[in-house]
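Observation: inputs received (chain + adenosine-5'-triphosphate).
Thought: call the complex predictor directly.
Action: predict_structure
Action Input:
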Amino acid sequence: MNELSLYLLDIMQNSIKADATLVNLNIVTDKDNDLLTINIVDNGCGMSEEVLEKALSPFYTTRTTRKVGLGLPLFKELAELCEGSFKIESKVGVGTNLTATFKLSNIDLPPFGNWVDTFYILVINDENVDIKYIHRVIKNKETKEFVFDTVEIKSILDGMSIKDLSLMKWAKDYIRDGLNEIEAIDNL
Ligand SMILES: Nc1ncnc2c1ncn2[C@@H]1O[C@H](COP(=O)(O)OP(=O)(O)OP(=O)(O)O)[C@@H](O)[C@H]1O
Ligand SMILES: [Mg+2]
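Observation:
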């Protein structure tokens, strides 16, 4: 995969498949320390130690349509390839907390790619799943922040569905402008 957005799509889809009602996506682009940190926390079904260990091997999946699950092992592999780290904690009935780091300047770090559209797919994927996305950029010791919280957005929609097509342009522009403003992603 040559876009970070596709890795994130897979990882966050795992949370949705695990029946999470809330997924927190925290991204820190620390330009001062040449470090990208991606943290995803969900309140889904969680994994036992045994399942977690297997989940990190590319031949394990609880899905029945295909024999290998690749989301987690590929994300871990990418982090390690990019001089970063990968950590995952999970507890049955509580949820999963995953953090991957990457060296920003590493040549193997793929671009975010089509992140706005991909993130928006996750937002409208399931109305019962809330997503709170916080992206921070640290540059010259200054921190800028963009927040997209579906709980907040639903509260001002006044009964309109977040899936309503008429919202799409507004939502995508809002995300793109917000990320551009904090200089989170080049070439967005
Ligand atoms: N956030 C999560 N909460 C609970 N279980 C999870 C979570 N993420 C992964 N898993 C478990 O780990 C397994 C492996 O995940 P992985 O993303 O690698 O593969 P997959 O989702 O099964 O298949 P693919 O991603 O290739 O479509 C999943 O089938 C699921 O059982
Ligand atoms: Mg998956």
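Thought: report the result.
Final Answer: The chain has a mean pLDDT of 93. The two ends are 18 Å apart (CA to CA).
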